[in-house]
Design goal:
Lambda Exonuclease, Chain A, alpha/beta, 227 residues, 41% helix, 6 strands
């Protein structure tokens, strides 16, 4: 089973890099949403040193987390959800008086559209496997989901992607799956005052080192990083 998980992970990494390279010819920066919500130095180093990303991701507990994540996605699929829905968006920002073109990329774990007399309802789930069951969702996970939702509904091809042009109701959730149990948080209960433009500028200018103090405890570069 471990060999299969490793093969799937490496194949997924290849697809990520192929998609990034596809857009690098047209955009100044091609950024995955997960890179925006973590330490900007770590995100850059993982991009520059993909072999480190491979070593970290092949740790047994990480592979088992991926296996569990995939199993839960399959469960959502049986419930009528679309899984691993790609989202992307174009942004323009000003850096040193120059216009910078940015392509943002991401993937929604599970999405479902329900049509009824009250209109179209969209449910969005982000699945997180963890060793500890949190009392509330982590800020970077909330940012991740909010960015995915914004990117999804700014897509000019939304009708083709999910079957509706504009929903009346959108419900966003983060589901934590841990040895202590499962807990689901409605994202709409949590407001975070961070603009997407600021997150993009943070990444481009490499100015959040770290974004959260606790990141350093888990960083593969902590022994060589000079903050």
């Amino acid at each position: 089973m471990m060999d299969l998980l490793i093969e799937e992970f490496i194949e997924d990494m290849k697809k990520h890099e192929e998609l990034r390279k596809k857009y690098e010819k047209e955009y100044n920066h091609v950024i995955y949403v997960t890179d925006l919500v973590q330490c900007t130095r770590k995100a850059r180093l993982l991009k520059q040193l993909p072999q480190v990303n491979v070593l970290v991701s092949l740790a047994p507990k990480v592979l088992m987390g991926k296996w569990l994540h995939d199993k839960i996605e399959n469960y959502f699929q049986k419930l009528g959800f679309n899984i691993e829905v790609p989202v992307e968006a174009d942004y323009h920002t000003i850096i040193d008086d120059e216009v910078v073109k940015v392509k943002l990329l991401g993937r929604i774990d599970a999405l479902k559209v329900d049509l009824c007399d009250a209109g179209a309802f969209v449910d969005i789930y982000e699945i997180k496997t963890s060793q500890k069951l949190p009392e509330q969702p982590y800020e970077h996970h909330i940012l991740q989901v909010k960015m995915y939702t914004t990117m999804l509904f700014s897509d000019p091809n939304l009708q083709d992607k999910i079957g509706i042009a504009r929903p009346e109701h959108v419900n966003e959730y983060i589901m934590y799956v841990t040895p202590q149990g499962i807990r689901t948080f409605p994202v709409t209960l949590y407001n975070i005052d961070v603009s997407f433009e600021e997150l993009i500028k943070d990444y481009i200018e490499n100015r959040k080192i770290p974004r959260y103090e606790w990141e350093c405890n888990y960083c593969p570069f902590r022994e060589i990083c000079i903050r």
